[in-house]
Amino acid sequence: MDHFELTLVSSRPLAPAVRHYTFVRSDGARQPFIPGQFVQVHFEHEGVMLRRSYSIATPADEAGALEVELAVSFVPGGAATALFENLSPGDRIQATGPNGRLVLQDGDRNQRYLLVATGTGVTPYRSMLPLIRRRIAERGQRFVLLFGARTPGELLYGEEFAAFAEATPGFAFIPCFSRTGYQPPRPYERSGYVQAALAELAPTAEQDIAYLCGNPNMVDAAFEALKGAGLPIAHIRREKYISPPSPRALPARPADGPQA
């Protein structure tokens, strides 16, 4: 695990409470990471040193990337929110990493991957896109991204995933809206919670490996649905996005998983 400094290049809104940040390492080096991993941001808040974890959203191969892209959810009163909402281009933050095992494993010989996400839990899958294209071309594996949101306005990187699916046979994108969908509706969207759409895909132990990332309730519900379909636990890889407790109750320690 490396300790490094990141310099903000730019930021833009992704959704009403989510912002996309593009950083570079201050030393000019490439940031090594495996698509699906996360970095930890270290900062001081009210006299307490804190850490927050964010999945790297940069589409990249195994060699890493020059830019470190993060999707950050803003939580009213949140310590990390106070940090990120006040950043301007040229500002610097401290980070360590990469960490995490929510990566495509080289030894996998399955026919299909089911990538399931809600909210900023979709960012690891965005980083995997170049690797997914290669897996489809070299191994003939198929990928389905099930992405749950309340409305299209909260579907982070939705147009990017839709364009990737259109240009990449073997990759399907299925947004699932719990409130209102596209107007007019798109043929590939679904209504309801993302875990409910799993049954339509008829998962089987023989062909599928599933990745679950995002809201803990979704991760737990999808995990049970996949187990009920016969997938062994080794074929269900999970990462929960958690909201941290109050900074006054949280000493600096490794995070349990990326923060929402």
From TrEMBL:
Its cofactor is [2Fe-2S] cluster. Residues 1-105 form the FAD-binding FR-type domain. InterPro entries: Cbr1-like_FAD-bd_dom, FAD-bd_FR_type, Flavoprot_Pyr_Nucl_cyt_Rdtase, FNR_nucleotide-bd, MRET, OxRdtase_FAD/NAD-bd, Riboflavin_synthase-like_b-brl. One of its GO terms (molecular function) is oxidoreductase activity. SUPFAM superfamilies: Ferredoxin reductase-like, C-terminal NADP-linked domain, Riboflavin synthase domain-like. PANTHER family: NADH OXIDOREDUCTASE HCR (PTHR47354), PROTEIN RFBI (PTHR47354:SF5). This is Ferredoxin-NADP reductase. It comes from Pseudofulvimonas gallinarii.
